Predict the structure.
Amino acid sequence: MRKKVWILVLVAGSLAILLALAENQTDFLRTNANEMPENDSESKKKNITYYTKYYQTKKSIYDSYTHKDSETIFLGDSLTDYYEWGEALSDHEVLNRGIAGDTTTGVLNRIDEVVKAKPDRVYLLIGINDMIAGQPINKIETNYKQILDILKTRSPNTKVYVQSLFPVNTALTGHPLNNATIRDLNKRLEDLSNLYDYQYIDIYPELVEFGQLNKDFTFDGLHLNGEGYRIWTRKILSTYNTNGAAEK
């Protein structure tokens, strides 16, 4: 009898642990989705703790920076974060404002630092983490519109380049991402670019092969390798005025 009781106790304990893990996973997804209350700036300030420590650290570093004239800012998530844009473009006035894991809501939360800088140019690429977290495309589009509204209103002389989301390789990512949905969002981003009179940079066709992110440009099906970044850099250079060395 005692043995059965102990077994029941162990089973109950195991279920409690599994429930706790499930709750943590839900919190993780909620964190990545950045589901902050709408139109509530105070709640957004409080809910910054939902972000990762990496996000908080990078944001605090960016906020502490003293800007110069004629800067170019690359704004986005890990795809931007992982690259050495200043070196690639041979330009010391290029700032990398990528944060791995960031979303459109995360960009909205930290866009003050960007618009206060009044940069010459902003290259924007954001949204894939929203999709990974299950955010509806309509919500992503709404957030994009808010980002572009802020840039247009508060930094009207900044040239903004809206970059298409990249294709993914579904066999490699392990994420429930769909390239058809990505293309749908890209079309909306192109329409928003036209609406705000910003330039749209369509990088998707440069990276796709047989409907998937070319496996020669990635290791994990989502992020780019060195060859993938070379393709991206070449596309950026077609819009970029710099005295640095261009792609050979």
In short: The two ends are 79 Å apart (CA to CA). Residues 2-33 form the longest helix (32 residues).
